Amino acid sequence: MRCASRPAPTVILIVVSPQFDHTAGIKTFKLPDPNPQGETIINIPGSYDVVAGMYGCTGTCTVTKASGDGYTLTGGGTWSFKPANPEDTLAPMPDTAYVVYGWWLHESPGGTATADVFWNLRGNATERADALRVDVAALHGTATYRGGAAGLYALKSSTGGTNDAGQFTADAGLVATFNGGGTRDDGSIKGTIDNFIGGDSMSRDWSVALKEVNFADLGAIPVFVSAGNDKTAWTVNGTAAADSGRWSGSYFEQDSSSGVPQVVTGTFYTTYDRVGRMLGAFGTNLEE
User: Fold this and answer.
1) Exposed end of the chain (fewer CB within 10 Å): N or C?
2) What does the alpha-carbon distance between residue 281 and residue 233 come to, in Å, rounded to a whole number?
3) Dihedral class, residue 159 (left if φ above 0, else alpha if ψ from -120 to 50, else beta)
4) Is the model's pTM score more than 0.85?
């Protein structure tokens, strides 16, 4: 899963700028004081991995000469790099804050099995805090999220044949509608889990509808969406069961420009009448 903040101080051997001209020690960049123009970012021309562009720094940032070739970008501000040519690609930077999701199964010595699903936010504490700061009160429009899902299922044969049970993987898609306004009608979200692969590594003609639920801003960090009973529907071979179950989730990583959350993750539980049970977790990113 993605998080937007730049990783914690890391020695990078491919950072180049004429303004990083010191041969030892630390060089500091900071906004002017006084700042009559209201500048919010310091722009420093240079290149990253031979890609020409502009380094940006907010706040007070430092460049430390590494023990070998290269520099460490540090300080209390935030560093960024924007290629001069948008078509130029950069090597991906590793996330130091990320969302994980999955399932667990515990079998006791007596043969009793307990299963559950989870999601969690891991990694650098500062970047986790940044990812949790989500406020959708001013947003309008829709956002689509795509990703994956995983979990456990058990489905009894309706024709007296072989029962089906095991772990699954699947695709997950959600659509959020933002209304703004600071009320319980701030927005809604719904989704679908489909393209299932069962415990035998074969595809299944299944889908699970995550029924539309409302969410509100309420100043929550993060903004949770949740559902009570009868908020999912499991379809098998084109035949949908009655609405059942529940699902819940959370937004993360609000884009600093658009305000749209970049990540939605959560869990779900559904049944297929009296013959099927499924529980799963999902993680999705904003579709670009």
Assistant:
1) C
2) 15
3) alpha
4) no
